[in-house]
Specification:
The complex is a heterotrimer.
Chain A: H1 7-31, H2 35-41, H3 54-61, H4 64-95, H5 101-113, H6 116-129, H7 140-160, H8 164-172, H9 177-188, H10 190-206, H11 209-214, H12 223-228, H13 238-260, H14 269-273
Helix pairs in contact in A: 1-13, 3-13, 4-7, 4-10, 5-7, 7-10, 8-9, 10-13
Chain B: H1 2-22, E1 24-30, H2 34-50, E2 54-60, H3 65-79, E3 85-88, H4 91-99, H5 107-113, H6 115-118, H7 121-126, E4 128-129, E5 132-133, E6 135-148, H8 149-155, H9 163-175, E7 179-181, H10 189-212, H11 221-237, H12 252-255, E8 259-265, H13 268-274, E9 282-285, E10 297-305, H14 312-322, H15 325-331, H16 352-363, H17 371-374, H18 377-392, H19 397-415
Parallel strand pairs in B: 1-2, 1-3, 7-8
Antiparallel strand pairs in B: 3-10, 4-5, 6-8, 6-9, 6-10
Helix pairs in contact in B: 10-11, 11-18, 11-19, 18-19
Chain C: H1 2-10, H2 14-34, E1 37-38, E2 47-48, H3 52-59, H4 61-93, H5 99-111, H6 114-124, H7 131-138, H8 152-167, H9 169-179, H10 184-192, H11 197-208, H12 210-226, H13 229-234, H14 246-256, H15 260-286
Antiparallel strand pairs in C: 1-2
Helix pairs in contact in C: 2-15, 3-15, 4-5, 4-8, 4-9, 4-12, 5-9, 9-12, 12-15, 14-15
The chains are: A mainly alpha, B alpha/beta, C mainly alpha.
Chain lengths: 274, 427, 288
């Protein structure tokens, strides 16, 4: 069995990896040091001694025991729901022929270009009128909406890559469009859906600005808002910030590692041959 | 039997509703995070234990810088969801809200509660906006040069009483291979502190105040001199590449022995402590302005009351409690890093510099504001642009003064404002 | 009967359109109306000035700089992360040892929240104690040390480097997903024909990834015009206004200068430009 790579390229890969991981390594190192050590001996110096105290401190200061639950809840609901709604819309945009198709696509793309800050005030007013303000589940709606253009674009692209013959065959068999989507198109788009899941989980988990503006009660806050608390008015504790960051990104890393395992060549390609 | 059950359930429900109705939630928004926030939560809980019908909800919008805090407050105010009490800085940052009618005028309460007797006088003047008081000062800060004692003693330095002595001090330090000053220019405000000092020196108190309200033109020799002196600092005495360094990182070169001084405020000793430094290794001196009275950069922070709040009475009661001497004294160094209440001091042994600085702040006749509280934000950004350009050598000091005045005139023409309304320290 | 057929086919679009219509269209219209006024975003006083905000943008000297910076950003972010992401995806698609670790490593910059990226990279770039300058001093090349974020000639490129570091994970992930859909048989057939690795790459891989390319490039185009977080955190648009981009400029105007009208106009100009750039690209690539 011929190796697909050479020793040289492998070492290049390792070298590149080390470079890319360097900032991450600093995050980890800083989270294991004390503030005094960091500011006096330098940020890139090896630790004077290693401490794990920053992690429970960050957990407490960032109110993670409350906020983690909120962030997990909203992510686990919003991400699948949002992707599903996007898939519903992406399928006609990819596989139907109708007059308004390109206009609709442009319409969704326009939403992608709008910066969030500008719509914060009208959204606040809107959510207030709908009694969805200062409520974790009120966040669901703007979150889904802002994910839609991106997800529709990605899914449309992948759906287009699926041969029309397969779609037509299912239609001839008597499937409604919804069933075609469910039984034929989606199973063949598993890698795209997984990629979107990872990216959307990340984006939703890290979303800061809307959560900051729409939520003010402590019981509904999310993890990024908790990370704010690590910063003092005149100076910040670097070890705590970095420890908090590591605690904060844990779920995203877990999701990524779990899901990327399914990026194994052949899972869907084989199916296409049938 | 059933009837008794239903009756008791109804009673409980009614009591519950009454109970819920009796306890109101007072929303207090601050900019404080970190350890301070934890203490504040305790402090607010203490208030509730003394006043069970008022539960305080602490909304902290921390660490993200003035711009984000103002954004959150502004969006909330415009949407009608602003908190009952909020923290704010002084000058134009808070004046903006007062001018738009979102702050309750508090003049009568200063009389009623006797606040003008227990607060440091210049702090009250400093929150006055167009003649009215829209907030209660709760923190007072002053800023000047802080230095490392061991390096200072090694170099055999003494406290400079004139600007020339300060220059000699810097030259001596530089010759020994240490940078005299470490400031960080990102966001502009830390470097601005140095310029403010230089302007106080070149222009003197009266002219400085008039320049802040723009009654006087900035295109004049004193301003040119300020830029010229600043260029010298930037070229020779400030750590290189300082323009875009994060203010959070400014003190590190001093800790690591590469710089002698920082330009920081009365809060600095608490920072030294948090950083695990020996507080006895640091000292401060009031920057020499060669004018009488000696003024330093000073500014208050305040609590403002939402004009649309349903709980104004409770808000005022809370603020009144907050600024009382015994309460401030108890929480100084924990929930509050500074105070405007007269006679509140930290432990002299634990925080010697803070103790001394509080004496200074109480005895100050007058202060000059940081320019970013005297100027509206848009104009301030032009100020920072010019400041950066001078440091980079892209404009001459003469041109810088001209540009500043041009920017001021352009702003005034666009907005129709003749003079700026609340440069603290202006009577 | 017609209606029922229509509904049974097109109802799929309704959920997305409903969400969009309520929660995005109203705010978009609101912000467009605001852009026709002079308003500070808070006080009840509003002055209608029509399209003057838009005209103002094109005659503002900072605007040209802002557009130039965005174009520079786009040029780099459209080329390097795409190329790197593609190469990494291809390599990490193979069964090499530690594949999971490498995939995680190259995606990890994307995962780091902005506050950490800002802090760590300003440490790396710090002129006095930073990693880059210290490295140059240690290896005996101190004249290569720069003020990475303060020097106007270099600042934008320093942030671009961080952007590439953070932004390569996303194309890599999408290309990995796209690679899963390429039938192995295509490669096996090419092997039989004696094709080299490079030939397989250019004649099989790249054409098969056509749709993925369209998605990645259009999203990067729009993303480049919208870039905000990284620049805001690393340079705050400075020194002066040298690293301002459309989004930061809009942000400053809306929230710092209290010029909500002008800021909204800039937001709409950004959105229109994104559409104007990405949409034709998608249309062209959609023709088969």
């Amino acid at each position: 069995m011929r190796r697909g790579y050479s020793n040289v390229s492998f070492f290049l890969l390792i070298f590149l990896t080390l470079l890319v991981l360097f900032p991450f390594a600093i995050v980890v190192l800083t989270s294991l040091r004390t503030q005094q050590d960091v500011v006096t001996r330098g940020v890139f110096a090896p630790p004077e001694f290693v401490t794990l105290q920053n992690f429970p401190d960050a957990w407490r200061m960032g109110r993670f025991s409350v906020y983690y639950k909120n962030s997990l809840s909203i992510c686990l609901v919003k991400v699948p729901l949002g992707i599903f709604i996007a898939a519903l819309a992406a399928y006609p945009l990819a596989k139907y022929r109708f007059q308004l198709r390109e206009t609709l696509l442009a319409f969704f793309l326009l939403g992608l270009g709008i910066p969030v800050n500008v719509v914060l005030l009208p959204l606040t007013i809107l959510l207030k009128k709908l009694y969805l303000l200062d409520n974790l589940w009120g966040l669901l709606f703007p979150y889904i909406v802002f994910g839609l253009p991106f997800q529709i674009l990605v899914l449309r692209g992948f759906f287009r890559g699926i041969p029309d013959e397969l779609v037509d065959a299912a239609r001839i068999d008597g499937c409604t469009e919804f069933l075609v989507l469910l039984r034929v198109v989606l199973p063949l788009s598993v890698p795209a859906v997984l990629a979107l899941f990872i990216m959307d989980f990340l984006a939703t988990w890290n979303e800061f600005l809307m959560a900051l503006i729409f939520i003010h009660s402590d019981k509904w806050k999310t993890v990024p808002l908790g990370m704010m608390y690590f910063q003092g008015q005149f100076a910040s504790s670097y070890p705590i910030i970095n420890a908090g960051v590591l605690l904060g990104i844990l779920p995203v890393v877990v999701v990524y590692v779990l899901l990327q395992r399914y990026f194994v060549s052949g899972i869907t390609a084989g199916a296409l041959k049938e | 039997m059933k009837r008794a059950l239903y009756l008791s359930i109804c009673c409980l429900v009614v009591l519950g509703i009454v109970g819920i109705a009796a306890a109101i939630e007072l929303r207090v928004m601050t900019v404080w995070g970190g350890q301070q926030k934890e203490y504040l939560d305790q402090m607010f809980a203490e208030y509730t234990s003394l006043n069970p019908e008022v539960k305080i909800s602490h909304e902290s919008v921390a660490g993200t810088g003035a711009a984000t805090y103002i954004e959150v407050l502004k969006t909330a105010a415009a949407a009608g969801t602003a908190p009952d009490v909020w923290f704010n800085w002084g000058g134009e940052l808070s004046g903006f809200f007062a001018d738009a009618g979102y702050c309750e005028p508090l003049d009568e309460y200063f009389e009623k509660y006797g606040w003008n007797k227990i607060l440091i006088p210049w702090t009250i003047e400093a929150v006055r906006r167009n003649g009215k008081l829209y907030g209660v000062p709760i923190c007072s800060h002053g800023m000047t040069f802080w230095y490392r004692k061991d390096l200072w003693d090694q170099l055999g330095l003494t406290e400079p009483k004139t600007y020339k002595e300060l220059e000699e001090l810097c030259a001596k330090t530089k010759a020994a291979g240490i940078y005299p000053l470490s400031v960080a220019g990102k966001y502009g405000w830390m470097v601005m502190r140095l310029l403010d000092y230089l302007l106080e020196y070149t222009a003197g108190p009266e002219l400085h105040d008039k320049l802040n309200t723009t009654e006087e033109s900035w295109d004049r020799p004193e301003v040119v001199e300020m830029y010229r002196l600043f260029k010298k600092w930037a070229d020779e005495w400030i750590v290189p590449g300082f323009l875009q360094v994060n203010p959070d990182d400014a003190r590190m070169p001093m800790y690591q022995g590469q710089a002698l001084m920082v330009f920081e405020g009365s809060w600095m000793e608490t920072v030294f402590k948090q950083d695990g430094q020996d507080v006895n290794n640091f000292g401060f001196f009031l920057h020499p302005t060669e004018h009488e009275p000696l003024r330093i950069s000073g500014f208050p922070e305040q609590f403002m009351v939402n004009a649309q709040s349903k709980y104004k009475k409770e808000a005022l009661e809370f603020i009144n409690w907050f600024i009382q001497k015994d309460v401030q004294q108890k929480w100084l160094g924990k929930a509050v890093t500074s105070t405007c209440t007269i006679g509140v001091y930290p432990d002299e042994k634990e925080l010697p510099n803070t103790y001394r600085f509080r004496q200074v702040l109480e005895q100050l006749q007058d202060v000059y504001p940081p320019t970013d509280q005297a100027f509206p934000p848009e104009l301030m950004h032009k100020y920072f642009e010019i400041q950066d350009s001078v440091a980079l050598g892209l404009v001459t000091p003469e041109d810088a003064a001209k540009r500043m005045q041009a920017a001021i005139e352009e702003y005034k023409e666009e907005t129709g404002i003749k003079v700026f309304g609340s440069a603290p320290g202006m009577k | 009967m017609q209606m029922r057929r229509f509904l049974s086919r097109y109802w799929l679009l309704f959920p997305a359109l409903a969400f969009y219509g309520v929660f995005l269209v109203y705010p978009m219209i609101f912000s467009f109306i605001v852009s026709l006024y002079r308003w500070d975003g808070l006080s009840p006083a509003k002055v209608f000035i029509g399209l003057r905000n838009y005209v103002r943008f094109f005659s503002d000297p900072t605007s040209l700089l802002v557009l130039k910076n965005n174009l520079t950003w786009m040029a780099f972010m459209l080329s390097i992360p795409v190329a790197l992401g593609l190469i990494l995806a291809v390599i990490l698609n193979e069964k090499i040892p530690g594949r999971t670790f490498f995939r995680a490593a190259f995606y990890s910059p994307t995962v780091l929240p902005l506050v950490a990226v800002g802090i760590i990279w300003s440490w790396i770039y710090n002129p006095t104690f930073g990693a880059v300058n210290s490295f140059f001093r240690i290896i005996g090349l101190p004249h290569l040390a720069r003020n990475w974020l303060s020097d106007p000639g270099v600042a934008l490129y320093s942030v671009i480097l961080t952007g590439i570091w953070q932004g390569t994970g996303f194309p890599m992930l999408l290309f990995l997903a796209g690679l899963q859909t390429i039938p192995k048989e295509l490669y096996e057939a090419a092997d039989i024909d004696g094709a080299t690795g490079l030939q397989k790459f250019f004649y099989i891989t790249i054409p098969s990834l056509r749709e993925t390319f369209v998605v990645v490039i259009s999203l990067l185009m729009i993303g480049s015009l919208k870039v905000f977080d990284l620049i805001y955190v690393m340079t705050w648009g400075g020194p002066g206004n040298f690293t301002q981009v459309l989004s930061t400029w809009m942000y400053f105007n809306t929230f710092v200068y209290h010029k909500a009208g002008f800021g909204s106009a800039i937001a709409w100009i950004t959105a229109a430009t994104s559409l104007g750039v990405a949409y034709p690209y998608i249309r062209i690539m959609s023709r088969r």
